[in-house]
Structures are given as C-alpha cells and as structure tokens.
UniProtKB/TrEMBL annotation:
GO terms for cellular component: cytoplasm. PANTHER family: DYNEIN AXONEMAL ASSEMBLY FACTOR 6, TWISTER. It holds the Pfam family PIH1_CS. This is PIH1D1/2/3 CS-like domain-containing protein. Residues 15-107 are annotated as: Disordered. One of its GO terms (molecular function) is protein-folding chaperone binding. It comes from the Eukaryota.
Length: 211
C-alpha cells in the first residue's frame, strides 16, 4: 500500500517539474497513438482515405455490385435452360420500340360500357350498382376497318390493353378498366366492315358487388 502511494507522489512531482516543451511532446505522442477510432463505423469507412489522396468506397457498394452480378447470372442461366431467345424485359422493350416506330394510322373506333341490370337494381337497388362506368360488366370496342378482310386483322387483348393490327392500320388502346382477357368475344360484321370486341370487366373489388 505504501509503495503505491509513493509511486503516485513521484509521478505527480515529475509532472510539476517537467518543462512545457516536454508536456507538449508527451501530448503529441499520446495523440499519435490514439488518433484512430476505437471501432469502425459506416461513416468512418465512407470517409477514410486509401493513402493516395482518394476516398475509399463504402463496403455496401461492393455488396450491391455482387448482388447485381448474381441476378444477371441467374437470368442468363434461366435463359440458357429455356427455349426462349429473349428475356421478358427485352421482349417488353422491343414491343414499345415497335409501337413507337410504327407510322400506320389509327382506325376510327368507339368504346362504350354495358351493364347487366336486374329487377333488384331497377326497383330495390340492392346490388349497390350505379349508372357509372365503375359498375359496368363489359367493355365493348367497335373498330371501323373499311376495305379490310377479316383474315388480315390481328387482334391482341391483354388485361389492360387491346391491339388491332392490319396491313394499313394500327390501334393500340389502353382500356379504362382491367378485363378478363381469356373470356372476351370478337365479332366481324362484314356488311359494316367493323370489328366488335366485347370484354368482361374484371376488377379486384367485384366480389363486393356480387355479395
């Protein structure tokens, strides 16, 4: 116990007798060995230098690049194992480019809505339906195609769009409501040179109207 007290006393006495220059040198030495952070943080990693004057890149960038590389490799393996020669993203981009570059005129067309009206709707109003298009059951599109033969008409229907292609005309129509593209009906009216397409509307909340 006595030796410990004596050591503290001698250390304090040494500090009092030390010159200002020696104190500054001791402080500089302490700062040199304690300049680095006690532990690494994201901020410290991002702002640290590589030694040649450039800033080091965060570790998360490397992880993201590796993840992107894995995704590309998975897509390439999927394409290699399938019979397709294009990926879905490439096909979608190609379709947009084809539509933008197509200078064929748009044919005349009309679009209207159909709604199945029951006695409950007419007299009781129990179904919750109303005359607006949000309560319609079907979308009917009539396309005018004079001087056309039905065998030269190409119809493509998707959930939210409809395309009509002929050698001289092109219609790329965005539908006002999602439709059941598997159960639509198409009719060619020869005497009027019209294509009549009837598409059932399929909304996510239709079950509320049916209950």
């Amino acid at each position: 116990m006595g030796d410990f007290s004596t050591s503290l006393t001698l250390s304090a006495l040494k500090d009092l007798l030390a010159t200002p220059q020696e104190n500054e040198e001791d402080t500089a030495d302490n700062n040199k060995y304690s300049a680095g952070p006690a532990f690494a943080t994201p901020g410290g990693i991002a702002s640290s230098s590589t030694g040649n004057g450039t800033e080091a890149q965060p570790a998360m960038v490397t992880r993201k690049s590796a993840k992107d590389k894995q995704i590309r490799q998975a897509q390439q393996e999927k394409l290699a194992n399938s019979k397709d020669i294009w990926t879905e993203d490439e096909v979608e981009s190609e379709n947009h480019a084809t539509i933008d570059d197509d200078d064929r005129p748009e044919p005349k067309y009309t679009l209207h809505f159909k709604q199945a009206v029951t006695p409950e709707d007419m007299y009781l109003g129990m179904s919750g339906r109303n005359p607006s298009s949000h309560s319609c059951n079907e979308i009917v599109v009539v396309v005018e195609l004079p001087a056309h033969d039905v065998k030269h008409v190409d119809l493509q229907v998707k959930r939210e769009s409809m395309n009509v292609l002929t050698p001289t005309h092109r219609l790329n129509l965005t539908l006002p409501h999602p439709v059941d593209d598997k159960n639509g009906k198409a009719q060619w009216i020869a005497d009027k040179q019209q294509l009549r397409v009837t598409l059932p509307v399929k909304r996510d909340y239709d079950f509320l109207l049916e209950s």
